[in-house]
Write a structure and sequence with these properties.
The chain has 841 residues and is an alpha+beta fold. The protein folds into 6 domains: 89 residues; 104 residues, PAS domain (Beta-Lactamase); 124 residues, 2-Layer Sandwich (Beta-Lactamase), CATH 3.30.450; 103 residues, 2-Layer Sandwich (Beta-Lactamase); 158 residues, Histidine kinase-like ATPase, C-terminal domain (Heat Shock Protein 90, 2-Layer Sandwich); 125 residues, 3-Layer(aba) Sandwich (Rossmann fold). The chain is built from 23 helices and 28 strands. Strand 22 and strand 23 form a beta hairpin. The longest helix is centred in the N-terminal third of the chain and has 53 residues.
């Protein structure tokens, strides 16, 4: 039923009427009372009453106008506010995120629906008004239709209900929704306000979250890494995965609710304390390494990354650990391997350098430093290396280009073609090396093999081979040549016995003898190269040998000698003739280098060489001699050839002088070298093995010393394959007073000696040639004769031998030796010595 008094408008009308009635009553009462008080005349009162009436009408009209205008204005403003509020409500109502329905509580039909509902479900507002809530819902879980009806009844009792539902659109599609039901009143009628929220996105997010959680749970469970969650405060395990069990050996039920310290998992508890401190400070700890004790007691190494997380308000540690025991073992093996490799590289006798592709030298080994003198600080880059190792610009450019081209053409793991180079060391010396380069993992490994000594040895070997070749040639002709010289020189000396000093033939014979002796010296130089030409060594004084050579060669020249020969020089064991020949040739070479005169400085000193010496000689005590001249010098390009046989730069030279020096010195176990340059003079350095301390008695026997005269009688057997020598020897021996028997072969000599022995007239001395082509020589013949007669007195004669018998003839049973070509004096001395030794037996 409608109640007009309950409306705001009716109340305003009553308010206006009440005010008007009260004002009118007061006007009538007060105006009449006041008029009677001031005016006594009824006529005047009547006149005034007329005007009073008009005034009342005007005043009441104005009052009514004011009240009605105020009422109308307020009403208009209220209507305007209502319209504005309604518009705002409608705007909010129709633009709400949720669909809003107003349902009649009695019929269940829709009274109203907002625009969101129309959009969400696809119906128009008019279509909604002809529908009920059931048209847009499906009875699917989580609630059945009966349960939904019960929720609706609860809402009607005033208890708001919120539940999820599956709503259906006009096109038949469905979507998950969240429905809120609450009771309200509209025009005094009970209604249900229903708000429907599309939760499709939320459901999808929840599904994604569920899948994510499922993936995380699966990853957590099956991860090969150990994953555990501990309380930060006390380390109690809240959750562990299968990886934790695999690494530690503990099952989840054995550790959940217990702390890692209680289980004694940490080998060093301080590791956990350090981890906790870092998490407290930064909230995260990365790549911590620690040792863990497994359930079975074995130790594993783990690498951990931990983060602080909050679970139900309690700070916890999410710890992910990986078993790196094998990796650590592999790293340790790699370190040991690298250390071993480094030790090996340091121990290598060759230089090793490693360079990266940026040209930075990263490593050089100790052999590199010892060979070349450069440390890595001296040559930090390859540019610095090339600049210092190859100071000559042209050569440096050539070597650098070969290096660069070699690297650019090779792939990783391949070897650059080895090449030779001359490297200038830090001290200025030049080393000859072979460089092997290989690319390995963006690095260039260079190996420097120093072949300086090898090249020196190779050159020395070439010299020896050349000398051996010459020796073969010399040995092939020496025997016949010396036989001829023996016949010539012997006959000349024999002829001189039959003429006096005033005879016209004396001078020609002396000149012929000198020529023959010169030929013998030349043959002697040739024989120096012959295989087996061993020196006949005796203790000698180096001072006397040098002084003899200088006195002999420099006599009559403009060259002066400056000798520095200490008195304490050790003696040497050497062949006096050969060493004099060597010294003479060096001094002659100096004189020829200084045709206008000059100074020859000769110094000597005692030195000791160890096994690491670069001369290629045995370790021991040596006498070192240097011969330094001021001559024209020897150009670098020919220094390697000066000791070669037949090499000479002098017109008319034989090329045997320095080569014979080389052969003599090396046969004595010594070494000779030369240092020189064009126009700077030359210095020859000789090392000869020392035989003992200095002694004044040591020296060369005087040439004039002659053995005592041979006996006036005796028998001599002479064996030689050359008839001229047999004839000459017969004449000389007859002149000396001997009876002579000759033969040409060793077999014949043995036969004649046996026959003489059996007849009771044995030979006093046997002179036999050492070498008999095609027959038994002196060595074999001596052995057979000594078997027949151990007291036999044998003298060996030879101008050449392939065995060192002439130097050590006593070892082969001989009593003496005579070297071809010989003169009558040498033959007499040899026979005299043999007879004296025999008499003393």
């Amino acid at each position: 039923m409608y109640h007009p008094f309950k409306t705001r408008g009716l109340w305003q009308v009553f308010k206006i009427v009440g005010i008007y009635a009260a004002f009118s009553s007061l006007w009538i009462y007060l105006s009449d009372s006041a008029l009677e008080f001031f005016v006594r005349s009824p006529a005047t009162i009547a006149s005034i009453s007329i005007f009073k009436g008009f005034a009342f009408v005007l005043v009441t009209a104005a009052l009514l106008f004011h009240l009605i205008a105020r009422y109308v204005t307020g009403t208009m403003e209220a209507k305007q506010r209502g319209r504005t509020s309604e518009e705002r409500f409608q705007t909010i109502y129709n633009n709400m995120y949720d669909a809003v329905f107003i349902n009649d509580a009695g019929t269940g039909g829709f009274i109203d629906a907002n625009q969101t509902a129309c959009t969400m479900f696809g119906y128009s507002r008019s279509e909604f008004l002809a529908m009920t809530f059931g048209h847009m819902s499906l009875g699917t879980p989580p609630y059945s239709a009966e349960e939904a009806q019960e929720l609706l009844q609860r809402a009607l009792t005033g208890s708001s209900q919120v539940f999820e539902w599956v709503s259906k659109k006009k096109d038949g599609s469905v979507f998950p929704s969240e429905i809120t039901l609450c009771k309200t009143t509209l025009d005094d009628n009970g209604c249900i306000l229903a708000m429907v929220r599309d939760i499709s996105e939320r459901k999808r997010a929840e599904e994604r979250l569920r899948l994510s959680e499922e993936k995380f749970s699966t990853a957590f469970r099956i991860s090969p890494d150990s994953i555990s969650i501990n309380r930060l405060e006390d380390g109690i395990y809240l959750e562990v995965n299968e990886g934790f069990s695999a690494i530690t050996g503990y099952q989840p039920e054995e550790v959940i609710g217990r702390s890692s310290l209680e289980l004694n998992i940490w080998v060093n508890p301080e590791d956990r304390a350090c981890l906790v401190r870092e998490i407290n400070a930064h909230g995260i700890a990365m790549n911590h390494e620690a040792e863990f004790r497994r359930k079975d007691g074995t130790i594993v190494v783990g690498q951990m990354s931990a983060r602080r997380i909050d679970i139900e308000g309690a700070p916890c540690i999410l710890n992910i650990a990986r078993d790196i025991t094998e990796r650590k073992r592999a790293e340790e093996m790699l370190r040991e391997s690298e250390q071993t490799l480094k030790l090996l590289m340091e121990a290598l006798p060759v230089g090793v350098g490693i360079t990266n592709y940026h040209g930075v030298i990263e490593y050089v080994n100790s052999s590199f430093v010892s060979h070349f003198g450069y440390t890595i600080d001296d040559i930090p880059t390859t540019d610095q290396w090339f600049l210092k190792a190859y100071p000559e610009p042209g050569y440096r450019k050539q070597v650098a280009a070969a290096w660069t081209n070699g690297l650019s053409e090779m792939a990783d793991g391949t070897q650059v073609v080895p090449r030779e180079a001359k490297i200038t060391c830090k001290n200025g010396t030049v080393r000859h090396v072979i460089i092997n380069t290989q690319l390995i993992r963006n690095r260039a490994l260079a190996i420097f093999t120093d072949i300086t000594e090898r090249e020196f040895t190779h050159n020395e070997l070439l010299k020896v081979q050349k000398l051996e070749s010459l020796g073969l040639l010399a040995g092939g002709i020496a025997h016949d040549f010396n036989n001829i010289l023996t016949s010539i020189l012997g006959n000349i000396s024999f002829a001189q016995l039959f003429i006096d000093g005033a005879h016209k033939a004396r001078e020609p014979l002396e000149q012929a003898e000198k020529a023959a002796q010169r030929a013998a010296e030349l043959a002697g130089q040739l024989l120096t190269f012959a295989k087996g030409g061993e020196p006949v060594k005796k203790p000698l004084s180096v001072q006397r040998l040098v002084e003899e050579s200088v006195s002999l060669v420099l006599r009559g020249t403009e060259v002066t000698a400056a000798l520095d020969l200490p008195a304490d020089l050790r003696i040497i064991e050497a062949d006096a003739g050969q060493i004099n020949q060597a010294f003479n040739n060096i001094v002659i070479n100096a004189v020829q280098a200084m045709p206008g005169g000059g100074r020859l400085a000769i110094t000597a000193e005692n030195v000791t060489l160890d096994d690491s010496n670069t001369l290629g000689v045995a370790a021991g005590e040596y006498v070192k001699l240097t011969f330094s001249d001021e001559g024209c010098g020897i150009p670098n390009e020919i220094q390697k050839q000066i000791f070669d046989p037949y090499f000479t730069t002098k017109a008319g030279g034989t090329g045997l002088g320095l080569s014979s020096v080389y052969s003599i010195i090396t046969r004595h176990g010594g070494h000779i070298s030369v240092s020189s340059g064009a126009g700077t003079g030359a210095t020859f350095t000789i090392h000869l093995p020392a035989a003992g301390a200095a002694t004044p008695a040591a020296g060369r026997p005087e040439d004039g010393a002659v053995a005592s005269a041979p006996p006036a009688s005796g028998s001599v057997l002479v064996m030689d394959d050359d008839e001229m020598i047999l004839d000459l020897a017969t004449k000389m021996l007859h002149l000396l007073g001997y009876r002579v028997t000759t033969c040409t072969t060793g077999e014949e000599a043995v036969s004649r000696y046996r026959a003489a022995q059996e007849s009771g007239t044995p030979f006093d001395v046997v002179i036999m040639d050492l070498t008999v082509p095609g027959g038994m020589g002196g060595k074999e013949t001596a052995r057979v004769i000594l078997e027949l007669d151990p007291a036999a007195r044998l003298v060996v004669s030879s101008g050449y031998s392939s065995d060192p018998i002439m130097a050590h003839y006593q070892e082969y049973g001989f009593c003496g030796a005579v070297i071809k070509p010989y003169r009558m004096k040498e033959l007499a001395e040899a026979l005299g010595g043999a007879v004296r030794q025999g008499d003393g037996l």
